[in-house]
Amino acid sequence: MQVRSSRETLQTPTQLDTRFGAVAGLYVATLVSPALLFVAMQWLNLDSELVVLGLLGAVGMTLTAAVAWQVTCWGGLVAWFNSPWVAFLVTSVGILPMFAYAFQAFVYIAITVADLQAESTASFVGFIGFFLGFVACCLGSVLVPMARTRLVNATVDASEVDTEWTAGWPRQDRFKLVIGALVIVGVSYALAFWQLGLQGVTMAGATGTIPMVGIHSLASERTYRVTPEGLEQRREARWVESRQLRLWSQFDGFSVTDRAIILHRQLPHFDIRCSRRDLIDDDQDVIAALETHLDRRDS
Fold first, then answer.
1. Cys bridge to 219: 31, 174, 193, 200, which one at CB 3.0-4.6 A?
2. What confidence score (pLDDT) does residue 1 get?
């Protein structure tokens, strides 16, 4: 496959804004603070939940401020988030503390429901760690699109955009993708139950939601723009706008079927599919724009 575009570099901003730094700081603080609390609890022999909460607030604010200050001075950081593996890690790493603190969180909830006095604050810290692990997953899912949007803003010149269109996956392809994901999740649950019983199913429940959320995001409607550097994808959510730029060198050409325009990528990446029904009368303009950068397979 021959790529016809010669501009294959991503530009990063010199500095990042305070909002991005604050989210990055909170993300790091939610992951690190519980572990530091465990160390402080053992070292200082803490036995008061109020003292633990106060220490958590002090440690969290200090970490947030320090990381935010460092991040805002490091504009090149956003280039890392364009990697799907880094994006997956940032979004899902919060599951690890959820697993690590799950037992202690369960003990604390059981003690609270039974109105008993806990023997130590370890279960309370475990409950905090479990909850903050979930918060870290949520912050990671916000941090990734924020970083990618800032990378696209620094790279793409709006005046050089060739063609723009909005489309999602064809309905048939979306149905096949959902069925495949359900089969994989179902098999994972069955294996977890076989090896670990109901506890394994509970643990798998947290990870099983990740592929389903990813599948929904992958097949949902997006706005695409053809730029000299690559194909820009934009998806607007309620709280954050997600923009990502895929360089032309990341594609292996494209093809056109009765239902879709398909931009091919090497495994393990999914192809990008645009339903021709969503394009209405603009599909020929889209095909012509893509042909200036990629080889058409079915021609």
1. 174
2. 41
Does residue 228 sit in the same domain as residue 94?
no
Residues 40 and 148 in one domain: yes
Structure tokens at 105: 């969180």
Q: Are residues 134 and 12 in the same domain?
A: yes
Domain span at residue 182? 171-215
Strands 254-256 and 260-263: antiparallel
Whether residues 47 and 103 fall in one domain? yes
| pTM metric for this prediction | 0.77
Torsions phi, psi for 225 (to 5 deg): -135, 135
- Write down the pLDDT at residue 63: 93
Predicted local distance difference test score (pLDDT) of residue 44: 74
Half-sphere exposure of 208 (CA within 13 A, CB side): 17
Same domain, 29 and 136: yes
H/E element, 124 = helix 122-155
Tokens standing for residue 249: 């060198």
Q: In the chain, how many domains are there?
A: 3
- Give the residue ranges of the chain where pLDDT is below 50: 1-6
pLDDT value at position 22?
95
Q: With CA atoms as reference, report the closest residue to 283 among 188, 192, 167.
A: 167
Judge if 121 and 195 occupy the same domain.
no
Instruction: Tell me the C-alpha distance between 292 and 290, whole Å.
Output: 5
Give the C-alpha separation, 142 to 238, whole Å: 11
| Co-location of 229 and 298 in the same domain | yes
Looking at residue 2, its pLDDT comes to 44
DSSP track, 255-298: EE-SSEEEE---TTSPPEEEEHHHHTT-HHHHHHHHHTTS-BTT
Residue 6 has a pLDDT of 45
